[in-house]
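Retro notes, structure queue

What went well: the backlog is down to a handful. What didn't: a couple of records were mislabeled last round, so from now on we paste the full input next to the output in the thread. Example, using DUF1707 domain-containing protein from Tessaracoccus oleiagri:
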Amino acid sequence: MDFRDLPDGRLRVTAQQRDHAAAILREAVVDGRLTVEELNARLPTALNAFTREDLYRILDDLVPAAELPAVVAEQVALGDGPGMSWENPLLIRSSWAGHKLEGAWELPPFLEVLGTGWGTVKLDCTHARPLAKVIDVVITGNPSVTIVVPDGWGVDVQQLNISGASGSINSMVPTRPIGPNPRIILRGSTTMTVKVRNPSKWDRRAITAG
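Corresponding output:
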């Protein structure tokens, strides 16, 4: 496509337009139009775009040509506060005592797990309300991480780097979700163990008892 034929290609874009383009890319991963590798290649352009033409180039095979200018021009508010943008993730800090999120909680599209004392972080999403179909979780520092997701969710661990002799990844959850269920993408690195699983009978009993 000759992007010079599209209107207002040199107009500067806003933060909302960048986030909207990133959301379109993430939705395309869920429905299988993009691979995770393609998402990783295009996201930096979306989040650092200067002009509409920058966004045209990464969306032209996902949005019909006739709709592309209107889609790029949209000012779609994706929400504010921690976890609602790439630049401002929900930060979960783990000390020696660890950190646990469970029960009914809102799972935003962007989280960062920061381990500062080798403690264990448990993200139990069994009763969480996901706010997006693709959830980015970046792990930094040295936390052990356990992620519990409902049946039918997908968790992609291919972007996660484990270093050190004591580190490992143990996932019992498929990479791709079933139907419209969410998909979690794990990124970053740790020297400790990362476990991904569905709720156990003990988890379900504990939740019922609580």
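Agreed that this is the format going forward. Reviewer comment attached to the example: Helices lie at 15-30, 36-47, 52-59, 68-73, 201-209.
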